[in-house]
Fold:
Amino acid sequence: QVQLVESGGGLVQFGGSLRLACAASGFTFRAYPMRWYRQAPGKEREFVAGISYSGSTTNYADSVKGRFTISRDNAKNTVYLQMNSLKPEDTAVYYCNRLTDWGQGTQVTVSS
Structure:
């Protein structure tokens, strides 16, 4: 059974940093691309960042490009999202994704 468990969210001030992690199990992690999405209150879920199965290719939403970095450790079955220069508009629940599988999400709140 596929499990995606996010961690690392919290409350941070404007300009601060957080590192999210998503621990995966129940599938061959190294064989799949992984993505991060987020959903702010009253808004639709949106793509944030994606990484290829090997980690050699990444892509980002324009709103986070240059501030967020996605990475993965295939030995640990974990994908990360390093978030720097955080803004209040980054406040959302952040979700890990593989195909149609989703984690439970982790809340990120950025105060101004």
Summary: The mean pLDDT is 98.
